[in-house]
UniProtKB/TrEMBL annotation:
It comes from the Bacteria. This is Diamine N-acetyltransferase. The keyword Metal-binding does not apply. Pfam families: Acetyltransf_3.
């Protein structure tokens, strides 16, 4: 049986109690470069988002799960986006909020758990992710988990007045 629990983390559905954590994460300008956000979100808008987070992935074409440690502390989020059941693919995004929680295998476990879910439960053929070329930890993470670098999007993201390339990684369900 598939479990969304690893050795040090588990993935769970979003809860109303996640509002404060979501608010802090979404409104941190340090994260806006990767999320495409250009302005803060109000608590009201995020409350509405949480109220609708229960909707089926086939309806809303996305799924966001909370990454929690085994003491039930929210650490980050992992997302499926651009879910395409016709072509059997989805995008994947992940964020671990606190720098002190990074580089400890949390991202590796979360991506591995979600990849297994995507292939086993949703029956998708492929999953992909986009990583900025200067994000060495994420480049290493996805390469380590068998994602293949399949392309470079030139000058894709502008950050602090300079353009950055974005690397496209893909993993096929064998």
């Amino acid at each position: 049986m598939l479990s969304l629990k690893g050795k040090q983390i588990y993935l769970r559905a979003l809860e109303p109690e996640d509002l404060k954590f979501l608010y802090l994460l979404e409104n941190d300008p340090e994260n806006w470069e990767i999320s495409g956000t250009t302005a803060p979100y109000s608590k009201h808008v995020l409350e509405l988002y949480l109220e609708n987070a229960h909707k089926d992935i086939y309806e809303v074409k996305q799924l966001r799960l909370c990454i929690c440690d085994l003491k039930d502390r929210a650490i980050g989020f992992i997302d499926l986006f651009d879910f395409d059941p016709k072509n059997l693919r989805a995008g994947l995004g992940i964020i671990v909020r606190q720098p002190g929680d990074r580089n400890k295998g949390i991202g590796t476990e979360a991506v591995a758990l979600l990849t297994e879910y995507v292939f086993s439960v949703l029956g998708l053929k492929q999953i992909y992710t986009n990583v900025l070329e200067d994000n060495e930890p994420s480049l290493h993470l996805f390469a380590k988990l068998g994602f293949e670098k399949v392309g470079v999007k030139k000058d894709w993201i502008i950050s602090n007045g300079k353009f950055k390339n974005e690397i496209l990684f893909q993993k096929l369900n064998k």
